[in-house]
Amino acid sequence: MKNITWLLALVLFGIQFAEAQGPPITADKPIMLGGGSFTAKTLTELRHTERGNFAYVPVMLHYLPTSNSLVAIHLPYINYDIEGGPSGSSLADIKLMGKYQFFRKDGTGKTFRMVAKTLQTLPTGKELDVMDLSTGKYAGYYGIVAGYESLKYGISNEFGYNWVPDGSLDALTHKIGFGLPLLKPQYPNKQVNLYFEYTNSWLVERDWYQLLYAQGIQYARKNVTFDLAVQVPLVNDIEADRKLKYSLFLGSRYSF
Amino acid sequence: MMKKSIIVSAFLTLMIFFSAVAQEGKDRFMVQVDGLGCPFCAYGLEKKFKEFKGIKDVKIDIETGDFSFSYPSDKALSIADVEKQVEKAGYTPITAKVERANGTVEESSANEMAKKSEGTVSKNVMVAGNCAMCEARITKAAKSVKGVSAVSWDKNTKIMNVSFDMGVTSLEKIEKEVAVAGHDTKNHQAHTDDYGNLPACCKYERLSY
Question: How many contacts does A have with B, using Cβ atoms within 8 A?
Fold first, then answer.
């Protein structure tokens, strides 16, 4: 009850001072920052499950050839410690991403955009069977990201399907994130933002379902952000001994 | 001591002189940009314009979408180039104006065409509001009406001056559009829901009818 009261207080506090916000943490965004620009990012995930602990450290480079397209490469490193199983460190699955913005509706201090997205996972990691981190399998993800950002709040929404040739990790996913700023909008940029992000994931063949909630906070200056988020399961309907306990995300990004 | 003062004075005079000369050789561009939903968007816009070597005095007001900068006049940057660059940054240019170093003023072709249209009249009407954000919303709502060529609103006097083609629209239609945006006008009260959707800083004192 005390936790709910705190959460409610944070939401109300956020709404009270809601003016503007930056990019989401665990969800994706449809807004692209101008053709010809680069963003270097990292989003370390410390994932604790009943099966073991994983530290996933990706280095990501995003490039926008035009104002409505993006290509990216994610080079991840993983440290794993599986109970009763292997432990060690290695390269995880390299990912290539492409996005194309096909709809844009702008207003004064607000915008709505839609983006088609694909994420191609290459089988460069060990076969640890840890989805999104290291599977050692090829996967193709295809989805749509839609988002509304205004000077009061931001909502990002993603729906997509992850396809794996043997079907073992085929998954339908939906992410929704709400961003609320705590500071007045200003440029040059100085922001502290709160994020409330939900991830729905259904592994079709295994019939596993997870609903995860991430509470995040972000500090942003002109072209730099620092992110911190804790993700916990609200629904954890997956195999026994595999359930997620929690994940901690630490990230930063720099645009140039 | 006297010698030092003279040197400092001469130095400052030269600085002011060169600064004035530098300003004289610059065109001042003012663009209203839609789609700046967050300060990062403003960064993306500024970064794209840094491709224009020699750009100075960049100012972006994310609440109103007002974007302005100075640029060397000898490079003869056109409004069309500026509008194209805003598009390349991923945003929408609404209006653009440049004050050239030689004193001439140019506006985006859409504005100029509208100003030259026949039957254009200029009217003043009271519109309630508080701040720069209100100003942006009021002028944008009025401009969205077909036939309106120019709009301004003064937050101190609360008077909106609007120029429009009488053969295309009327002051009543413009007032209705402004009311839909959440602002009471002399003859049209905004719906409670539209007023309620305004940000806290824009919650003006409602007009009585």
Answer: 122
Q: How far apart are CA A130 and CA B117, in angstroms?
A: 66
Q: Is B24-110 in CATH node 1.10.10.10?
A: no
- Are B34 and A36 in contact (CB < 8 Å)? no
Q: Rounded to whole angstroms, how far apart are CA atoms A248 and A45?
A: 6
Chain B nearest-CA residue for A192: B39
- Decide: B163 and B122 in contact? Cβ < 8 Å: yes
Q: Where are the domains of chain B?
A: 24-110, 117-202
Q: In which domain, by residue range, is A165 found?
A: 2-255
What CATH number belongs to B117-202? Answer: 3.30.70.100
Chain A from 217 to 246: CB within 8 A of any B CB: 220, 222-223
To the nearest whole Å, the CA of B25 is away from the closest chain A CA by: 27
Question: Do B170 and B182 meet the contact criterion of CB atoms below 8 Å apart?
Answer: no
The C-alpha atoms of residue B123 and residue B111 are separated, in whole angstroms, by: 17
Instruction: Count up the domains in chain A and report the number.
Output: 1
Does the beta carbon of B48 lie under 8 angstroms from any beta carbon of chain A?
yes
CATH for A41? 2.40.160.40
DSSP A34: -
List pLDDT tens digits, range A91-105: 999 999 999 999 988
Q: What pLDDT is stored for residue A3 in this prediction?
A: 42
pTM beyond 0.90: no
Mutation pick from A13, A108, A190, A256 vs chain B, by most beta carbons of B within 10 Å, is A108
Report ipTM (2 d.p.).
Answer: 0.75
